[in-house]
Structure formats: C-alpha cells, structure tokens
Amino acid sequence: MSAEETLAQITKEVSTCTACALHRSRKRSVPGEGPAGTEIMFIGEGPGFNENEQGRPFVGAAGNLLNELLAQAGMKREAVWIGNVVKCRPPENRDPLPEELSACNAYLERQIAAIGPKIIITLGRFSMGKFLPGAKIGAVHGQMRRIGQRFVIAMFHPAAALHNASIKPMLVKDFAQLPKLLEQARAALGQPATVPAGEPPEEAKQLSMF
Predict the structure, then answer these.
(1) What is the C-alpha to C-alpha distance for residues 170 and 167, in angstroms, rounded to an integer?
(2) The CATH number of the domain where 173 resides is what?
(3) Per residue in 194-210, pLDDT tens?
(4) Residue 207 within a domain
(5) Nearest-angstrom CA–CA distance, 179 and 183
(6) Residue 173 falls inside a structural domain
C-alpha cells in the first residue's frame, strides 16, 4: 500500500472511529491533511469548533495565524501535513484526556510512518508531550532535537499567541528559523547513522538552537 493509500485508509477509519467517548459529540472527525511526501508535519492538540464543522485542521483563527506564519517562512500550507494528537473535538475545547490521546495515538503513528517526515513540529504542550515528555515549552521552543530517524521542534500553539500577545514574537521567530533548520535536518539525515546497531538513539538530542 502506498503512502497516499495508507493516509486515505486512515481517514476512512477515523471517520467511523468509536475508540473513545469523543465520537459521541463530534460532528466531523479531523484526520489531518497534507501531501504524503512532505518533509514537515505539524501536530497540534485537537480540533476546535470550526474544525469540527469542516472536518479540516486549523481552519479557525489559529489556522489563519498558522497560514500567516508559514507564508512568512516562505512555505505553503499545501506543502506540509497538518493534524492533531486527537482527531475529534473535545467538548468545550477542553484538554484531551489520557484515554483520548491513547485512542488516537495509533492513527497518528501510522500517519507518521506513512509520511516519514524529516521534521515534526509540535504545536502546544500535548503534542510536545508525546515526543518530549516532561519538557517545558518555554524552555525548549524553537530548538530542533533528534529523536530516532527524524527531528522534533516544539513550538507554542498559534491559539496561545492569540490569547497572549507576548507569545506571538517568539512564535514568529521560531517559524522564521524553519528554512534553515530544514536544511540542517536534510544534511544530518543524509549522513550514516552514528548510533551502533542495536542501541537506542539518544532521545531528544539537540541539533540546533537559535
């Protein structure tokens, strides 16, 4: 099965998923969208009101800001994959519960495996926690860290920047670094692995800071 076919299959499965209680209140599931061959995946937290209505990620005010940030970094939304750690809207936009994160994790892992991105950018603390457990976003945002065969960059969620004006300049600065960090990731992943076979990669190895 090709990457495109795998992603389409996951979308179909998510649309009828009943693995957690969120399916009872959803209007439309939000599996994520973007090309199978992209080098960058953006992973947020969960769908909001507009996403639940349209079945697409980041289409509200936070999505508009994300589009602006991508444009400022010289990137197009259509060239990256965008999704969330949970595929259905938590009621009243509350935080996703552990059992909801667990129920959606298998879908997300399959999407990551199908796409094989060079960089995963986490937006918000719940997606950051999947890859950098225990990290504080204020301390690590914008830093690229190697985890296995790809890199992870934690960033603030665009919604946080809309509610806290002091966050937006940091988010803008982090996005401005993306072209340079992508080049560094390409170069690093083009080299032979330095970790001996059979040994786990060093978790959260920092490649670059500002």
Answers:
(1) 5
(2) 3.40.470.10
(3) 333 333 333 333 333 32
(4) no
(5) 6
(6) yes
Q: Is-contact 163 60, C-beta < 8 A?
A: no
Q: Please give the residue range of the domain that contains residue 33.
A: 3-189
Look at strands 81-84 and 150-155 and give their pairing. unpaired
DSSP string, 82-106: EEESSSSPPGGGPPPPHHHHHHHHH
C-alpha distances (whole Å) from 139 to each of 89, 135, 154, 155, 176 are: 28, 8, 10, 10, 18
Beta strand spans in 94-210 (E):
119-123, 144-147, 150-155, 205-208
Is residue 42 within a helix (H) or strand (E), and if so which, with residue range?
Answer: strand 40-44
- Pairwise CA distance, residues 69 & 29, whole Å: 25
Question: In this predicted model, what pLDDT tens digit does every residue of 33-55 receive, in sequence order?
Answer: 999 999 999 999 999 999 999 99
Q: Is residue 49 part of a domain?
A: yes
> Considering the entire predicted model, what is its pTM?
0.89
197 domain-assigned: no
